[in-house]
Design goal:
Elements (H helix, E strand, L loop, with lengths): L4 H4 L13 H8 L5 E4 L10 H12 L3 E4 L9 H10 L3 E3 L23 E5 L7 H14 L4 E5 L2 H5 L4 E2 L15 H9 L4 E6 L26 H4 L1
């Protein structure tokens, strides 16, 4: 606690300190943020007893919760009750649509006529999403209308307008995850679509997946459609 997170991660100082507790973090911030992002990625995919208490403490202080875990807090009676009592919202980023709203692969990805770039990797936390984000910005800066379609919860938390947390979608429906690319093209004329992906593509099939997580941050209303 107290160290600069950029230095701890082996990079340049970024003036974002590591805090020992929620109270310590709020004291440093100087005010209570609107949203509390739970950005850890435990191997179990579930909150520990301590972490449950931390999230409930944030709710008690009036913060909405952005949850990137496979454990959907809206389905937990304790969190659902706290949400109602404190008039705060829980956003389960990974929660897929109801099965009646999911679709099988239709082949409509062929309607996307602009080039697609898949940023591939064989493991988590090796920079796929970061690379795709940097490439998208660089391409737009050079006059190419590029958009990133996120395939993981962190990209959605960080504001991606298109995408889905693919690892939470039942496998039968995953091939249609490129609907985000179709939605992107339907709203603007694109030169490029970038997909960060964890698994290498098989033959010419569309790639899948990405992953990563963040920590205490605010979400803007601008990103509401992506977060849902």
């Amino acid at each position: 606690a107290g160290l600069d997170s950029g230095v701890v991660l082996g990079d340049e100082p970024n003036a974002i300190p590591i805090c020992r507790s929620l109270a310590h973090a709020l004291a440093h911030a100087g005010s209570i943020p609107d949203y509390f992002i739970f950005g850890m990625a435990p191997a179990s995919g579930m909150l520990s007893s301590h972490e449950r208490g931390l999230v409930l403490e944030a709710m008690d202080l009036g913060m909405n919760i952005v949850n990137g875990l496979h454990e959907f807090l809206n389905d937990d009676p304790v969190f659902a009750s706290a949400s109602t009592a404190k008039n705060v919202e829980i956003i389960d980023i990974r929660k897929p649509r109801a099965k009646k709203d999911l679709r099988l692969f239709s082949g409509r990805i062929a309607d996307v006529t602009c080039p697609r770039i898949s940023v591939l990797g064989t493991d988590c936390a090796i920079g796929k999403r970061t690379t795709a984000t940097i490439l998208t910005r660089a391409l737009n800066a050079r006059g190419l209308n590029a958009v990133m379609v996120s395939t993981g919860q962190t990209g959605l938390i960080q504001g991606a307008r298109y995408g889905v947390a693919l690892d939470a979608v039942p496998s039968q429906f995953r091939r249609d995850h490129h609907r985000g690319a179709r939605r992107a093209e339907s709203s603007r004329i694109l030169d490029l679509v970038l997909h960060p992906s964890r698994q290498l593509p098989r033959r010419r099939r569309a790639p899948t997946r990405t992953k990563k997580a963040t920590s205490l941050r605010l979400r803007t209303d601008d990103n509401a459609d992506a977060l849902h």
